[in-house]
Design goal:
The protein is of the alpha+beta class. The protein contains ten helices and six strands. The chain has helices spanning 2-30, 34-52, 54-71, 74-80, 85-88, 90-126, 235-248, 254-281, 290-315, 321-344; strands spanning 133-142, 145-153, 158-168, 171-185, 188-200, 203-215. The protein has a six-stranded antiparallel sheet. Helix 1 (2-30) runs antiparallel to helix 3. The longest helix has 37 residues, at 90-126. It starts with a helix and ends with a helix.
């Protein structure tokens, strides 16, 4: 555990220096206050990247620590004293369990709140990613009610050319179209220059007017949520958002599902990386720990790359979000188990 946290402090210190060097011009051009740089960007920066690269830190820490034990012939002495290889894994498993719990808490609750400040800072001063308008919005706002807005502006909460269709099963019972839809407060909206058609069997009732107040269970912010916002939601909030979007028939859920599954898959990788690291470095080899560390860095880089590529496949509908998040763990677990069996013999 000491090696793990020491490596985190070392690597993140270097990362902060490089990041500050890269963004120094943006900070000066935007005249960002020093207080905001420290507390709104770099303070959340630490847990965010610590959690992102925890697999790398865990793997290198295990290899470094275990290679020192093997290099000093301490593992040989333990086994000569009757300690089995399985018993040797108990303290490793205990440490991995602590890091697993830490990863769940950081990824599910701590980091989303700190990431909100960091992403707001980035959006304001460095890279503007928040959209000011949304086009061709279509969703089921409540069971049987479909809302369509051709364009919506965030700065004045006004949408243009909208329609609201209400269904009873598969039968259209009412259709309301309007030139404008304007958000009022809470979940209250009003329509301007509207036309409402109500269908009763073969009969149709027509209603037209300049203004009509309606209630829709949606607020403007929900029209502008992007994949970046998934990192700002706690795990319960993320689960609730996905359920609500599925009910509305929204297609913008893949990135949120991947983020949700990764919050469980990444911490569980602590056990897999620990198992793989111990089996690779528990034997005394010529050349010391340098070879083991080199192999460890390559394998961890492959794990992170594999995770990133699978996420891209999921967003592009090539792979399910569950498989995108869990496939790297499955593959590396399949590699670790035969190595563990071989090492224990």
């Amino acid at each position: 555990m000491g090696t793990f946290f020491f490596s985190i402090v070392l690597i993140l210190s270097i990362a902060i220096v490089f990041d500050l060097t890269e963004k120094m011009d943006d900070f000066f051009e935007s005249q960002v206050p020093l207080k905001e740089i420290i507390f709104d960007y770099y303070l959340p920066f630490i847990p965010y990247y610590m959690n992102m690269f925890s697999s790398l830190f865990i793997f290198i820490s295990v290899i470094f620590f275990t290679s020192k034990l093997a290099g000093n012939s301490e593992i040989i002495a333990m086994q000569a004293a009757g300690v089995s290889y399985h018993r040797l894994m108990v303290p490793y498993a205990f440490s991995a369990a602590l890091l697993f719990v830490l990863g769940i808490l950081l990824g599910g609750w701590v980091i989303p709140r700190s990431s909100e400040r960091m992403l707001n800072f980035t959006d304001k001063y460095v890279d503007h990613f928040t959209k000011e308008s949304a086009r061709n919005v279509q969703m089921e706002v409540k069971p049987g009610t479909i809302l369509y807005i051709e364009s919506f502006r965030s700065y004045n909460h006004v949408g243009y050319r909208c329609s609201i269709e209400e269904f009873d099963g598969k039968t259209l019972v009412q259709r309301t179209s309007a030139d404008k839809i304007i958000y009022d407060s809470l979940e209250y909206w009003h329509l301007e220059n509207y036309t409402q058609r109500t269908f009763t069997g073969l009969r149709e009732e027509l209603e037209q007017g300049a203004r009509k107040d309606i209630e829709l269970p949606i607020v403007p912010d929900e029209l502008f949520i992007t994949a970046q916002h998934a990192k700002q939601m706690t795990t319960p909030e993320l689960r609730h958002y996905m359920e609500r979007q599925r009910q509305r028939g929204s297609g913008n859920v893949k990135a949120f599902e991947v983020e949700y599954h990764k919050r469980w898959a990444s911490p569980l990788g602590a056990f897999i990386m620990t198992l793989l690291g111990v089996t690779m470095s528990s034997r005394k080899v010529r050349g010391g720990m340098g070879k083991n560390l080199g192999i460890g860095v390559i394998l961890t880089a492959a794990y992170i790359l594999f995770s990133t590529v699978s996420t891209t496949f999921s967003v592009n509908n090539v792979m399910s979000p569950f498989m995108a998040a869990w496939l790297p763990n499955f593959v590396f677990l399949a590699i670790s188990i035969p190595l563990y069996v071989r090492a224990s013999r």
